[in-house]
Amino acid sequence: MAPLYYRDAVGAVVVYDITAPSSLEAVKFWTKELRQHLGFCCIAVAANKCDLLQGEEEQQQQQQQQQQEAAPPSPAAAAAVAAEATAEAEKYKNNLEQVKRGIEEVKRFCASNEFAFIECSAKTGHNVNRLFEDLARNVFTHLKEAAQTDISFCAAARTAAAAAAAAAAAAAAAATRPAMSSQQQQQQQQQQQQQVQQQQQQQQQQQQQQQQCVQLKPVWRRL
C-alpha cells in the first residue's frame, strides 16, 4: 500500500529522530524503498530534534552555575555532589557523542547516495523552511534537465532519420538513372550533402526554439 501514497512523486522528505538508533535504520529502508519504486527521485533526509543538543548543553551549564552560586556545603556533601555531577556529566557526554556519531553516519550515507541532508527541529522550526526550499530547488533543476535531454534526443533522432531518408532516396535515384560521369557524381554528392546540412540546420533551429519554450514553461506546476 505504501507505494500508492508516493506514486509519481518527484521529491520526498525522510525525517528521522537523532535520539533513536532504530530511526537511523529506517532512513536506509525508506530511501531504498523510494528509489526502487520511483526510479530517480529528489530525496532530502531531515535530522529532527536537533534542538535537544543545544538544550542539553544549556541545561548542563545552568546546573553548574547554580551549584557554584549555592552556599558552600560541608566537605562530605561537597564530595557527594561532585561525584554525582561527574557521573551525570559522563552520562551526558556519552549520550551526546552517540548522537553525534549517528548524525555523522547519516551524513556519510546521504553523501554516498546523493541525498540532501539537513539538521532541523520541528519544535522550534529551525531550518524547516530551508529544508523544503532546497528540495523544491533540486526538483526544479532535475525536471528542467530532464526536459532538455528529451528535446535533444528527439532532435537527434529526427536528424538521423532525415539523413537516412535522403541517403535512401539518393540510392534509389542512382539505381534508376544511367551511369554518370565522375564529375556529375561529385556534383550530385555535393548537392546531397548540402541538402543534409540544410536539414540539420533546420533541426537545430527547431531545437533552440523548443528549449526557449521549456525555459518559459511553468515547471513548478508539476511539483
UniProtKB/TrEMBL annotation:
Which Gene3D superfamilies does the UniProt entry name for this protein? P-loop containing nucleotide triphosphate hydrolases (3.40.50.300)
From which domain of life does this come?
A: Eukaryota
Q: Name one GO molecular function term.
A: GTPase activity
Q: Which segments carry the region annotation Disordered?
A: 179-202
Which Pfam families does the annotation name? Ras (PF00071)
Q: Which residues cross the membrane?
A: none
Cross-referenced PANTHER family: DRAB5-RELATED (PTHR24073)
Annotated coiled-coil segments of the chain: 82-109
Q: Supply the SMART domains for this chain.
A: RAB, RHO
Q: Which UniProt keywords apply?
A: Coiled coil, GTP-binding, Nucleotide-binding
List the InterPro entries hit by this protein, alphabetically. Answer: P-loop_NTPase (IPR027417), Small_GTPase (IPR001806)
The identity of this protein, by name, is GTP-binding protein, putative
